[in-house]
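User: Reviewer 2 asked us to show a designed sequence for the structure in our supplementary figure. I'm pasting the structure tokens here. Could you produce the per-position amino acids so we can include them in the response letter?
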């Protein structure tokens, strides 16, 4: 009897030690995932903000030269209007307008008559961009961004006080490239990302309705935003303005609902930055992680189940060992049993271990598959393409194609998400049906897909594949009486030693150009 109690004590102690060990290993693995992934986001944000700054420096140099040659304000005003289109060609969609305060005058690149600014009480010296530039005494500064509901993007202003101590150059930018970072780097199922500035203003978010919201605002301030929009909406009669206000109301209400549940958790996160912490949000447990930068911060949230699936090899193997030890101890407790019973216990142990190995194999396979379409998911696709690149010889090649559905939002809004899911599955079937067994295809997320075509560097072949897929989607959708969409795509040639993240970014740039037509266009990446 005493021996039995002793063995039971060992059994309990072993369980406790094993669980502590597993928990410690799992926590470290999750922390490392966040450390690495958040650093990727921060590096991309720094690169993007650096690009914005370099663009402004180009404009500043052009304007400085012009002032030296033609110092009269009227001449400078004409010059601002003349370079507006040039800057748009240079900077593309990032650019949104030029202006300055020069010789006690407000000059700008738009065609709006100055009287309109005077009538609204506009005073350049009272604007944040002017005040911030004066305060920073020559340092390039970004004014706090805000959401433009009229244009559906986040706006900010770069400004700088010039050496004369009076002139201020300013430059409006669209911060859409920050939002692209969120979509490009998201790699886990249901991963939630927010990128925000020191004041708490959200400039990038996987939930676009949160753009422009302020994480540092109190619930009372968030509620006041809703009340202010309601009051303005009640007084507005212009249809176009009503639509903007309704969109603003929807976003403000969504952000307020989010803040009601998350505000207190966020306060805890600010006290322990760069530490993964588990919280419950919207009936689901998430690990949250806050990375603070000098000017911009990253907030990441990944579901607990997703991370457990990602780190399965870390916690499952120790659990297998634990089960083996526990069964061994139980067998020791029952040592007086007949040889036949002992043999049966060992057989059961082997069967249990086999079942666990099968379960592990099935779980690992499931982790690599997109649940809706049965295609590879983003993570497994990325790993497979990186492996292809590493195993290529110098003579080998391939083409990476990024794909996005055209007008898919219209299908969801008009027919509902069930029909939208059927359209996505149809697109997946047609993509898989038009590539070879040596090629790779993946659903990244939403209506976005990717293809890797092996042993080919001819864009004409890639374009023909996309055309065939679009033709098949149209034909099959009509046969099944389903809504028809097309897919637009951007492609880039892949060589040995290439970096996958850079390839994906460049293919996305080509896709961005193709998407402008919304009719299944194909674009290849062209080096500048």
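Assistant: Here is a per-position design you can include in the supplement:
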């Amino acid at each position: 009897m005493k021996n039995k109690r002793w063995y039971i004590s060992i059994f309990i102690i072993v369980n406790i030690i094993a669980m502590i060990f597993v928990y410690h290993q799992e926590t470290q693995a999750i922390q490392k995932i966040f450390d690495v992934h958040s650093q990727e986001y921060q590096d991309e944000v720094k690169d993007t903000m650096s690009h914005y700054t370099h663009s402004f420096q180009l404009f500043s140099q052009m304007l400085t030269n012009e002032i030296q040659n033609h110092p009269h304000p009227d001449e400078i005003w004409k010059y601002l209007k003349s370079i507006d289109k040039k800057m748009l060609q240079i900077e593309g969609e990032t650019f949104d307008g030029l202006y300055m305060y020069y010789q006690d005058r407000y000059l700008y690149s738009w065609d709006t008559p100055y009287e309109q600014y005077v009538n609204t009480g506009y005073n350049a010296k009272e604007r944040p961009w002017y005040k911030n530039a004066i305060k920073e005494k020559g340092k390039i500064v970004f004014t706090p961004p805000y959401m433009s509901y009229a244009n559906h993007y986040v706006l900010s202003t770069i400004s700088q006080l010039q050496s004369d101590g009076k002139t201020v150059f300013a430059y409006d930018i669209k911060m859409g490239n920050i939002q692209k970072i969120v979509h490009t780097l998201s790699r886990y199922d249901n991963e939630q990302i927010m990128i925000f500035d020191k004041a708490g203003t959200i400039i990038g978010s996987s939930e676009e309705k949160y753009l422009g919201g302020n994480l540092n605002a109190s619930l009372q301030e968030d509620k006041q935003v809703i009340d202010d929009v309601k009051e303005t909406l009640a007084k507005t009669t212009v249809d176009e303005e009503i639509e903007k206000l309704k969109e603003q109301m929807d976003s403000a209400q969504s952000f307020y609902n989010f803040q009601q549940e998350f505000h207190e958790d966020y306060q805890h996160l600010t006290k322990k930055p760069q530490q993964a912490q588990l919280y419950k949000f919207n009936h689901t447990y998430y690990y949250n992680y806050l990375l603070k930068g000098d000017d911009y911060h990253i907030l990441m949230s990944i579901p607990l189940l997703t991370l457990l699936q990602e780190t399965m090899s870390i916690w499952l193997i120790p659990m297998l060992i634990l089960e083996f030890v526990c069964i061994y101890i139980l067998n020791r407790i029952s040592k007086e049993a007949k040889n036949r019973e002992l043999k049966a216990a060992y057989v059961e142990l082997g069967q249990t271990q086999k079942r666990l190995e099968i379960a592990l194999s099935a779980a690992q396979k499931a982790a690599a598959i997109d649940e809706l379409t049965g295609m590879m998911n983003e993570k497994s696709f990325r790993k497979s393409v990186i492996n292809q690149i590493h195993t290529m010889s110098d003579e080998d090649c391939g083409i990476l194609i990024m794909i996005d559905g055209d007008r898919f939002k219209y299908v969801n809004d008009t027919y509902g998400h069930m029909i939208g899911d059927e359209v996505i599955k149809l697109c997946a079937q047609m993509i898989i049906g038009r590539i070879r067994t040596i090629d790779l295809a993946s659903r990244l997320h939403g209506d976005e897909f990717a293809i890797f075509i092996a042993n080919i560097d001819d864009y004409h072949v890639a374009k023909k594949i996309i055309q065939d897929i679009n033709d098949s989607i149209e034909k099959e959708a009509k046969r099944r009486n389903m809504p028809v969409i097309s897919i637009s795509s951007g492609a880039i040639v892949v060589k040995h030693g290439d970096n996958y993240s850079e390839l994906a970014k460049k293919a996305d740039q080509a896709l961005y150009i193709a998407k402008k037509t919304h009719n299944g266009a194909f674009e290849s990446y062209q080096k500048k």
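For the response letter, you might also mention the following. Residues 2-69 form the longest helix (68 residues). The CA atoms of residues 178 and 468 lie 33 Å apart.
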